[in-house]
Structure formats: C-alpha cells, structure tokens
Predict the structure.
Amino acid sequence: MTTPAVPAQRSQVTRKDVARYAGVSTAVVSYVVNGGPKNVAPATEAKVQEAIRLLGYRPNAAARALKLGSSETIGLVIPDNSNPFFSLLAHAVEDAAAELGYALVLTNSAGNLAKERRNIRNLAARQVDGVVLSSVLMEPDLADLEAAEIPAVLLNHSADAPGFNSVGVDLAAGAKSAVEHLISHGHTNIALAMGTNTGNYFDGREQGWLQALAEAGLPEGSIVRSPFTRDGGYASGRRLLAAASRPTAIFASSDMQAVGILRAIHEAGLSIPDDIAVASFDGSAESEYCWPPLTTVQQPAQAMAEAAVRALLQTPRGHEPEHLIFPTELLVRRSCGCEKPFA
Amino acid sequence: MTTPAVPAQRSQVTRKDVARYAGVSTAVVSYVVNGGPKNVAPATEAKVQEAIRLLGYRPNAAARALKLGSSETIGLVIPDNSNPFFSLLAHAVEDAAAELGYALVLTNSAGNLAKERRNIRNLAARQVDGVVLSSVLMEPDLADLEAAEIPAVLLNHSADAPGFNSVGVDLAAGAKSAVEHLISHGHTNIALAMGTNTGNYFDGREQGWLQALAEAGLPEGSIVRSPFTRDGGYASGRRLLAAASRPTAIFASSDMQAVGILRAIHEAGLSIPDDIAVASFDGSAESEYCWPPLTTVQQPAQAMAEAAVRALLQTPRGHEPEHLIFPTELLVRRSCGCEKPFA
DNA sequence: GTGAAAGCGCTAACAT
DNA sequence: ATGTTAGCGCTTTCAC
C-alpha cells in the first residue's frame, strides 16, 4: 500500500470551495449560511446560494461546534427505551428539542448506576449542551453531572433535587385520587403493588395510598414490591392472590405492573373488576388497550418533556433551579368497576 | 452591558493545560488519552493521568470529530419511538452502537416523508458516520441518503433496496407459519388485518397469508387495512366483526393491531379464541401480556439491530450492499386456541 | 458590503 | 520517548 490513507472524509466540499466558486470570501459564505451577523447584497447572496446548491455544500457541524462551543445537541439518559413510559418521554423530548433546533443523543442506562454514570460522562465528553436525566434511581449521579458542568434537568423526578432543575408529577396526589376512587367503589382491602429501585426515599405513590386509606378510616392494606415491569407486576399479582386475606382491589405504581397483575388475575380465573379491581399509575397507551382497560392516573408526559427541554435550553445560566410539579389526571375505565358504555 | 459576552464554554481545561501541568507536550497527552499511536513511558503516563484527574480534563469531542472527520455518532430515523416495536429496535441499535463506541442520535419521522427527509438532512449536516433508517414507507428517501453520501442501512426493510444495505425478516414465511397454525386449529375463514403505509408494494405478510390459504385449498378471507397502531387494529376489528360472514380467525400484521382487535372482540362480548382466534406479527413484549396472550410471529429485533449497526460501521466502503433476511419464530400462546398450562 | 485572518481543541506526521 | 507544528472547517472581529 503506497497510496496514502485517505481519511474517510465525506463532506469534501467546504466553505472555501463555495467561496472560490462564487467569487467571494469565506466570510460572506458564512454570512449567507447563517443569515448573519452581517448583511449581504442580494446579488451576492444569490451567487452564493447557487454555488452551494451546485456544489452540494453541507456545513460541517463539528467545525461549527468547535468554534461555537456548542453542539446544538442534548443528551437524554433514560433507564430503558423499550419501557413504554420512557419511550414516550424520549419521543416527546426529541420533538421538543428538534423544535428548538437541537438533536437528541439517546442513551439507555438499564436502571444501573454504573451505566448511567458512563452515559453521563460520555455525553459530557461529546459536548452536549445539556442533559435530560430520567433516572429510576432516586439518587442519580448528580455529582458527575455537576463535575461535567453541563446544564441538566431531572425528568420524572418528583423529589426536589437541590441545585438541579427538575420536573415531575405530584405522585402522592395522583395515587391518592386513584385509591379514593377505588374506595368509592366500596373496597376496604386495597393492596399496593409498589415499584422498587426508588432507594430509601419514601415514594409519593406509597404516601398517597396510605393517606387515602387513613382518611377513609380504612386499615392499611398489604404492600408487595417488584420492579416497574410487566414481569414484576405479574409476580406481585401472584403473591397478592396467594395471600391469606386476598385484597379486593389493587393499586399498582405503574401501568406496566398493572398489566402483569391483570395477567395474574386472568390466569387465576378471577374476574376483573368483580373479584378484584385494579387501578394504576402512568396513563400509557397500553393501559387503554389491555383487558379490561385500566383505570389509571395519567402523567402529562408530553408537557413534562417540553418543560424539561425548555428548562434546559432556555434557562439563563446561574438561574435559580426550578422544581416543576405537574398535576395528574385520573382516567376512569373499566378495571376499577366503572362500566363504560360502548359507542 | 459592557461586559464582553463570554461564550458559554464549559470544558475550559484543554489538552494544553494538561500538558503544561504535567510538564510534557500536548502530543504526549494525546498519546496517553488515546492509547497511541506512540508509546509513552510509564512514569510520564502516570504524571499525565494525574494531571488529567486533577484538572478534570475532558477531551473535546467536537475538535476530535473535526480533526478525524468522524463524530463517532450514528443517526437513527424511525417513524415513532413510542411504538413498542420501534422503541425496542431503537434500544437495540443504541446498545449495539455503544458497544462499538458510537453514540446514537434519535429522530422520529412520524411516518411522514417530509419529516423523514428533514431528519436525514439534519443528520447528514451533523456529520454522523452513518444512518440507520427504519421507515414505514416503502419508498423512503433514498435519493437524499445517497446525496448525503453517508453510509446507510435500511432496518426493518424486507424488500431489496438496490444500492443499500438492508436488514429485515422473511415476512411471507413468518405470516405463512402463523396462518398455517390457525388452519391447523380447523379455521377456514381467516381474515387479514393488514397495515397501511406500505406503498404500492405487495407486503410479504399479505403474500404469506394468501399462500397458506391457497396451499390448504381454502377460500381467500377478507382483508381490512388500517395503520399499524392499536387504534387502527381496533377499527379493523370492528369492521371485521360487523361483516356479513364474520371470520373465525384473524391474522394481524402487527401486535399493535392485534391488541386493538382483541379489544374490539372483548367489547363485542365474544370469546377469544373460542369465537374468534387471533394471531399476529412482531413478538413484542406486550403480546405476551395482553389477554389472552397473543400467538405471534417473533422478529429477532435485537439481532437485526446488531446486524444493521455492524453492516453500517464495519462494512468497508465500496463494498457490495448486503440484504440480510432474518428468520422469524412462531410464538404459540393462547389467542390461537392453544391452551398453555400454567405453572 | 466585503475580505483577511486568528483561533476553537485536537491528531499525527515529522523532527529530535 | 518526547516535542513541534500544520491544519481539520468554521465564525467573527477588525480592517477596508
């Protein structure tokens, strides 16, 4: 091999080529491409545009990023993009970012701290302009985030994180509304199928469930804990069904878990909601299409994602961090015992 | 405002600072950071590592990308990351890319050609090293992809695309196996709930369905078409139920649609599989947890994503394009009439 | 309205 | 084993 290794350069045509072809300076090409900061005579502009078109010039984003110190890219760290709740969030974040001209680098951390940390580091090295972190861990690696000095916002985070912007929902209020609804159906033995991985922090959903029970003068129901997955919910469901005093209603901390619980109940040959009523949390699309459709507490995922991106990109540096808490909405369907007439 | 606008530079500490602090040249720092291309004396390396640690140095990826002509980033264009099938694909692509040191820029195109085109252009401008395109459109914007001169691979694409790498499944064989299974249950009136957006191209799933019917000497069943969504399937289901000669079995071209069909059947007060059996295509997680669990043709999404990324990143330039077709596997569950014993 | 040129942080060929 | 340095493509200040 005597031929010099040609780097796999693709975008061979540069600003310089365009300038030469159009008979102007490279600066003018920049002005045209960026619409500023200087004005360009219409005739010159036309020449440049024509040259760009003819040559098939495409600006090199890396060079721009180097010069500007901004890649116009944000990073998203989520536990698992194949979990419907997070994939919806990811989609919404992508849309919101694209709206502002930012691209989205997606990373999955498998709910695992080491991977989450690696992803954050990697994003930091890639000069992203900000990171949206949606961790299941209640103690995500904020230190790393701080060290990277990258603006960050915690999405799907309902506890205040000192020093960080965060956006989440009012977990307790949402859970409480669902449990109250279950109570209104006459249930007195309402179990909680809680998710795990929330650290030693007292989850708002658990709180809301307790509170609704207490306010109604009802005894505490049983709690089972499992991961925020269909499998986890299935396991929880089976445990609950096998319990000595089987609950007549179950509140699940996520739709995923509720779907697993539904399956466990079906398999046991019991009827939903007649034998056991179910309600859950999230308001995913799947909750509407499982059988029976789930009564669930809907999180405004889209609005939250938009708020997170705005907080990230449009908050002036050094600004006091904001903790945005969105309200939830109880979606009443059949799994709680409410019969919905069909169209 | 008389203070000069300080650019929002974050990564203030550069290779030069490290070099100065460690008392070496910038080249040596590079060698240490990159593990080459030259060797560095252990003592020197230690000094440099220490300086890096102390100074909190993080390499600037933009500069590296500019120099190397590679951003070590790939782009993914999918219709909708909130569709479980695509979010699974996206996750798998992310994992495969990360494995090779590449980050993933995610873009959703909403199954819309204009947006798909915009996303491709945007990715091209961002100097991604390759694009994985997973379009629902059967005629994605290959011209744009070609113009950008970016290596690309079509994922979830089962028809040969001349000049492009592609990876997909054998749609016809998969569909055929499912329909044959339905036939083995004694069904003779098997409808097809097909997806739309596949252009004028004759979808393999339709082909497989027809073929299975023909080979069994059965009459052609009815076809209804709707988008690849739960809502679409629901609409198809209702149409099928209202038909004069109601089918006793339905094959759906995607799990999403099947889930909608399930709901329509439930709402009609009919039993699955006794009144109507259902089988579908994809093998998503949801298919296992709906009720009854769906008999479905599983696509090896993970393997396909890995193959796509490898084809993208590890195929020498100028190499003859490959068309990889993966086999599917029929997952037999209860919706077809097979009773699975419970553990 | 237009142009010249410095320099963003990094890599690697070439010199020592 | 280590150092010097050109230059990747771009933006923008400063001169004209």
